[in-house]
Amino acid sequence: MPRSSPAAAGPPLGRLLDPELLRAFVAVVDCNGHTHAAHHLHRTQAAVSQQVSRLEDAVGTALFAGPKRHIRLTAAGGVLLDYARRLLALNQEALERLRPEPVSGTVRMGATHYYATSVLPGLLAEFSRRHPGIHIEMEVGVADDMQRKLGRAYDLIINAFPGGSGRGVLLRREAVVWAAARDGDAPARDPVPLAVLPPGSLLRKWAEAALTAAGRRWVVVQESLSIEVLKASVRAGAAVGVFQAATVQAAPPLRVLGAADGFPPLPASEMWLDKADRALPKAASCLYDFLREQLPPWQEAEAPSGVDDPG
Fold first, then answer.
1. C-alpha to C-alpha distance for 288 and 3, rounded to whole angstroms
2. Edge-to-edge strand order for the sheet containing 169-174?
3. If exposure means fewest CB atoms within 10 Å of the residue's CB, which of 14, 40, 99, 212 is most exposed?
4. CA distances from 164 to 120, 167, 168, 169, 172 (A)
């Protein structure tokens, strides 16, 4: 008997769809774009785009039509979206059914401003849905204080470190810059007026040391744990600020200062997830494992993620 003709090209039979690729695809649709999806997933835009491309390769067809800035699903993308949601939900249901008896207790955690206010709230809400018996005490802190209290006051921290000196899991790395209002004269004043975090902040120590080494006098005119307060002071022209580079990129009225303005370069900072150097309570171990799952380690090949986080 004659052989039947080969089937049309398509994804190999028996191949499994990677849940992480499906998660990226659904996030792009729900967030209406790669940029917002990257922020939601705490990854770079390039990494999310790559995951979507890998998913398209896996299924053998395009999922989006038109330019990336206009999210529009192809017919195949619309079909896969429904399956992706169901597969992710089924995966979560399986994990919940297999989870052992509920864990209860209190977890004490410290984090830098950006993580405490922008990244962690959504994640901790999901964690609380999974572990309703666990209570999380979250504090916003500065680098020296949080590191000193780890193990005594905190079970876990997300903290800022100079490059190469952190411990635990490296979450991100980013340049630190001086910033001022575009039309303000604060950079030219003597002494330089500074808007900074409280003593113990890594960025504050770098700023004060760099200006002193450059022979420039300085004075702190605004001190706050709130990054928004500091940015407002800088935008108003009252002071010079020290921020992650992405903070300035996200605030157009601010400009980066450099050698031509009389400001020396600053080191890059790193954000690390760390846990106490002792046996963690079961509740704290659950939260640590959850954050390890949800906050992927920094990858050298990735570009900066575009979010700010002074320490």
1. 56
2. 134-140, 105-111, 156-162, 269-275, 169-174
3. 14
4. 24, 9, 11, 12, 12
